Amino acid sequence: MAESDKVFAGSIPKFYDTLMVPLIFEAYAADMAARVAASSPGAVLETAAGSGVVTRALAPRLGADARYVVTDLNQPMLDYAATRQGSDSRIEWRQADALDLPFEDAAFDVVCCQFGAMFFPDRVAGYAEARRVLRAGGRFVFNVWDRIEENAFADDVTNAVAAVFPHDPPRFLARTPHGYHDIARIREDLKRAGFTGIEIETREEVSRAASAREVATAYCQGTPLRNEIETRDASLLQLATDRATQAIASDRGEGPVAGKIQAHVIVATG
């Protein structure tokens, strides 16, 4: 993973939340919130919270006395998430590295992480930290994207942007968000971290947007793909967005568009 893959700053948080979240994250956030809340946990830790889509879905489902600690490595994303949440005395916002959590052992009933594990530089270490802060019988609930070929818009955008930079194609989407999809590898990493009960479900959803332009803007300007494009030639950001728009529209039309998205949802215990 390139260092730029982890940079969610500048205008990215706003584009990410207003465009990417409704496009691909909301359905999985609702699913995760339901899974986490099912056991009526008294203490929940969320890592890699991003712009707060899971936080917004989960907070209303937790009990009045619950403790909910929301963390992210990127302070700009965490700051943005806090502005979207509103006042809630149960929530503590804290910048934290999922690989080195600043919490005592056995402090939480559930640890959840939506589409963050792919960004961990050492996933076994991250999983071991989640296990360390879980109480006996606690659950680690997280999800990761399936391979990019199973996620239509991400694949379209990657191929279109590659044509703009044929000698050095930006591969952020394939390399990182969609680069950790092998179920056998995920199971092995969790076992190495000490988890013994591992359930994995592959869930297909449909991504929808008002236009191909909205999808292209979301991916090209609301994710670290933007960093890759601008590093190569910042003046070509709009051209890359235009080419991605054309690629999506050629397959799915000029009006509202829809495409398949697919992810693995994991619940680990023990």
From TrEMBL:
Keywords for the protein's UniProt record, in alphabetical order: Methyltransferase, Transferase
Domain Methyltransferase type span(s) in chain numbering: 45-142
Single GO MF annotation: S-adenosylmethionine-dependent methyltransferase activity
Example GO biological process: methylation
Pfam families, A to Z: Methyltransf_11
Protein name: Putative methyltransferase, type 11
Organism name: Variovorax paradoxus B4
